[in-house]
Amino acid sequence: MSQTSFEIRPIFHPLRAVVRVPGSKSLTNRLLLVAALADGITTLKNALFSDDSRYFAESLKLLNFTVESHSAESTYRICGLGGNIPARAASLFVGNAGTAARFLTALLTLGNGEFVLNGDARMQQRPIGDLVSALTQLGAQVSSSNGYPPVQITASGLPGGCASVAGDVSSQFLSGLLMVAPYARSSVELTVKGGLNSRPYVDMTLAVMAEFGVQVVCSGYKQFIINRQHYHTPGEYIIESDATAASYFFAAPAVCGGTVRVENISRRSKQGDLAFLDILARMGCTVGEGEDWLEVSGTSELRGVEVDLRDIPDTAQTLAAIAPFATTPTSLRGIASARLKETDRVTAVCRELSRLGVKVDEYPDGLTINPCHSFHPAEINTYNDHRMAMAFSLIGLKIPGITILDPDCVSKTFPNYYEVLEQLRS
User: Fold this and answer.
1) In whole angstroms, what is the distance from residue 339 CA to residue 354 CA?
2) CATH classification of 25-225, choosing from 3.40.50.300, 3.30.70.270, 3.65.10.10, 2.115.10.20?
3) Which of 248, 247, 260 has its CA nearest to residue 296?
4) How far is CA 142 from the centre of its chain?
5) In the CATH scheme, what is the code of domain 5-22+240-425?
6) Which among 17, 131, 368, 404 would be 20 to 30 A from 196, CA to CA?
7) What's residue 371's pLDDT?
């Protein structure tokens, strides 16, 4: 049953918990796409089942791919068709799932027919024009509404060739192009312009491609060459836990003290957001690791830091939520791209922290958060952004009177978030 608000109850003892978070969203969505393009059947285990991944899987079904979903077992079974798209026409709706919008737009150019992709009101404000431009340079017939969804594709296969793509708006543009490029009629050469944000996500894309047998020639994140190749299914792929989802539980001991361990994830992870652990260590926390777990222990004196989050912008809200508990200011820079996410995350964080009594300075690419010694109880607006809800709940673990509005927005990536959060009490 949906809730309009959820009050976070403080925890008045040091934490001692072991938790498990859902499978990686970034890996799940990449694997759904690559598995659909591959030769043969791929079973994805520990996959994420959330709003975003369901939009992606349902879109593949509308394109007449065979996708079996087993949410109770967190498993997808996808029958890949060797680069062929069965449907000759489809209208896809992806809500506010940016990854699905960008990846599916690229995928549709491999087909033959007329396709439309659209999303909700916020998705229609999130840019896709640079991806449309790159696909057009590669010979596809793609158009959008002033650089935003809806997107129209008149597909007859992707010719290939050379294209430049912006890297400073969203790395998803480049990732989408990379994953479909092996099935273009000729080799594809991609040049990144404007620098590249979120590089670890591109590394993840290249790693997934390699695990399905496709190699990319990469020159310093500035040029990528992809020759005609086919993906070959490994048969089964076990997805590790989501590093961004884990960040909330890694951060909890920084606020409450004690130790929290997250299972099914290790330093061998492909996910760049594990660099958040290094930030916690700089702040004074202790990080431990095992074969398939990572844990964080809190510190008696949390130190502020100055960090460039260009490569891990999805952890910005997590860091912002614990920063007021530090003894010195914390500055987050390099996150101008966060203004183009589910909401303008920079402004939203500044606004909600200010309502709690925290002094915040906002910049075009980030913010500075000062220590706070007297928090105000408040209802936290989440702006239909799952990460606002999850991050600000951390403050409620320490400060009484914190209520999360529209708490169900976490279903976008972490439907059982509050149940896992409650496990910290045991």
Assistant:
1) 18
2) 3.65.10.10
3) 260
4) 25
5) 3.65.10.10
6) 368
7) 98
Question: Is 292 annotated in the active site?
Answer: no
Q: Tell me the torsion sign for CA atoms 51, 53, 54, 58.
A: positive
Side-chain-facing half-sphere of 418: CA atoms under 13 Å: 20
Q: Could you give phi then psi for residue 380, rounded to 5 degrees?
A: -95, 115
- CA–CA separation, 79 and 209 (whole Å): 17
Max CA-CA distance within the chain? 62
Mean pLDDT of the chain: 97
Split the chain (426 residues) into runs of 10 and give each run's mean pLDDT.
Answer: 87 97 97 98 97 97 98 97 97 96 98 98 95 98 95 98 94 97 98 92 97 96 97 97 98 98 95 97 98 97 97 97 98 96 96 98 98 97 97 98 98 97 94
Options 52, 130, 273, 314, the catalytic residue: 314
pLDDT value of residue 1: 43
